Amino acid sequence: MAGKQIESGSAVDSFLVRNGLSQNDKADCYEFAEHHFPGSTIEVAGCQGYCSLTFFVGDDTIVQFRPRTYKLDLLTVKAAREVYRTFAPQTTYVDTLPKSGLLVYTMSRLQGVSYKEFRTSSTMLVRPTEARTTLCKDFAHFLSMGWRTKIDNVVSRGLIGSSLLSRLELLSKQLPLRFRPVARKILKNIDIVGRLPWVLTHGDIVASNIIIDAATGRLVGFVDWAEGEPLPFGVCLYGLEEILGEMTSAGFQYDEDAPYLRQIFWTELMSQIPELNQAPTMEAVKMARDLGVLLWHGIAFDDGAINRVVEEGRDIEEIRRLDAFLDIDASTSSSSSLSMCVTEESSSLSDECSRARFYDQRAGALLVTNGSF
Length: 373
Description:
The chain has helices at residues 10-18, 23-36, 74-84, 115-120, 128-148, 164-174, 180-188, 190-194, 238-244, 258-272, 279-297, 316-325, 333-343, 347-367; strands at 5-7, 42-44, 47-49, 53-57, 61-66, 91-96, 103-108, 113-114, 198-201, 210-212, 219-222, 229-232, 245-248, 251-254. By secondary structure, it is of the alpha+beta class. It has 2 domains: 5-108, Phosphorylase Kinase, domain 1; 113-367, Aminoglycoside 3'-phosphotransferase, Chain: A, domain 2. The strands form 5 sheets. The chain has a 5-stranded antiparallel beta sheet with strand order 2-4-5-7-6. It is globular and about 55 Å long.
């Protein structure tokens, strides 16, 4: 279900064609940015979303043009800023272009690089494990901000939140057979999941939407809140997998340090949210996490439509993610993290491993044995 992220160039032309726009309409966008930001450098963003045309203006501003079909919910993007503060950009509606009808928004530019760029960079200033340890802790802190902030009567339930039951029923009947038991378990326990705090949830946590400080690995924030909406806490935990691995030609592959980093994340999250130490709450969050995996990767993204269950042979990458995300070999996490401790040169990381082993002993019954964390 996740929206696509595309490299610029041909992606811009594809955006124009999909939306019945011309090169003149593209020129109008550029001229609008030039007129409203005189003297600023203007460049097409290197990675374009499926639903918008984005320009970088100077060092601090983004100008984005969106067809009305993909308009932003201003209440949602405002709430994202209020709940998650600097982890979400400040977003403002500016105008509508008269000829094309494109809606124009400005956003504060998060200062950093996308996690996708960070992964492929050969000039990282910190070691990958050290940087991603920091990122995992920051991601846990980000999630805890949502847990602590009530959004009742601020943002209404969106397309996904208002149709959880019907989507689960569809998934339990139409997913490839091996995934249906997961959908049926969640469907049976949807009331338990629904009693978790409903938090403002980012709609597309993928590597290109995660912005980090390349020098430290610190999380700067998340871009593209277009699909954000209130959902039960834990639904966006599929995003952790995008930090711990990446899609390759052979399928979704986890990095060698993924078990260790998973331990770090959960230790930090349980520290930030003490309620997760209660077994019933953790079990509900675990089901919400699997629900998020099914919603984002079990339902296809067809030119913006999100009502078709993925199919073998047709939605190859989504099926591969389902296979990886719903079959994590968590039972080996302890031995893997112990091995990391023995070989890790950094004493600080070794200390973290010691805490992770303690965490296994204290909460293993909650996490390691249920096979999805």
